[in-house]
């Protein structure tokens, strides 16, 4: 019996044996390319995140909450002026046929402006139910105030009286109206400004704190992407014994451009955001509040003349308001008005706003306003109430209007700074968003042109 020998089995290749180099090179090229693409995606994501964060900050401060603060600040001083105008009307004698109709006409204009400001604030509140309830409460309170004012004016018109001596019935109703204004309406209007201002401040703090971190992320992602692209080029040059490919060099240069442009735009937007907030928005709000305090001071002057029982209260309120605007240490209004003329350095709400040569006219107008107030109170103290009323509605009002007009000029300059900073920031972002898709496409094409020919050599 013949036994057929069994042929030996073919050798089994060792699992540890390395694959041929011609198979490992394409895999390594693909891995390096994929890593480079991932790093580039990280770079573009960091730039996009920075641009989006800056855009959200500019939009909220420049288009949403910021304008709402300005609108509600205007509401505050409009309400203050309404109450001051009614005090002027009551302080005038019923025989006046010139200033009384003018004051009433201005009251109607301010009432309409206040209603429009409330409507604008309601629209800007969006879905914020808390703010909408506050606005509705102000509207309801304003309706009650107007009813009291109408009743006070009716009682005043039914009695013939000299300047500064309204009938007790009209004065009593007006007390209720001014108490409603000062204790309910003005605090609620201020709360609207405060709530929106808190949103602006929180947004600014968050954005100003986040953008530097995102800039650092752009730098890290950019260095990583450049490192990957450079390593890919070095590998291809050494492996294929060629000089660097122009396509990959172009992709590297475009990547550098994206990183630099992203950092530049984010930094510029951070600067624009700071300018808009610190040099535009904050001073505009401060000046709006200062104007509101000024209108309230005007009302306290008229109330001082027409309400003898509360004259001391209104005088102290005038002093408190004056010190809030420009602080000078003084224990009485007389001492304040003497000291404020001699002071060279001021604190208070307008201390920084009235510093510098460009604000000198406003400071001079404020000092003249205080001088006119001194003259008015001197006449009132001498029992010459009629003359005091004439000064109040003549020299004092003229001095106040000059002072208020100077504040408006400063506010307009600050508003221009605010609007310009927001516009420049948004334009820079628009340019960046327009460039990013083309840059991404260009890098993708150049990367493919640099890698694909090398891969084809292994087919």
Layout of helices and strands:
Blueprint lengths: L20 H71 L7 H27 L3 H29 L10 H73 L5 H61 L4 H15 L7 H10 L17 H22 L3 H72 L3
Helix pairs in contact: 1-2, 1-4, 1-5, 1-9, 2-3, 3-4, 4-5, 5-6, 5-9, 7-8, 8-9
Give a written overview of the molecule:
- There is one protein chain.
- The longest helix has 73 residues, at 168-240.
- The two termini are 54 Å apart.
- With 459 residues, this protein is mostly helical.
- It is built from nine helices and no strands.
- It has one domain (29-451).
Short description:
Keywords: Membrane, Transmembrane, Transmembrane helix. This protein has 459 residues and is mainly alpha-helical.
Helix percentage range? over 70%
Overall tally of structural domains: 1
N-end to C-end Cα span: 54 Å
> So what's the overall shape?
elongated
Strand and helix order? HHHHHHHHH
Query: What's the story with the biggest beta sheet?
Result: none
Report the C-alpha radius of gyration, rounded: 36 Å
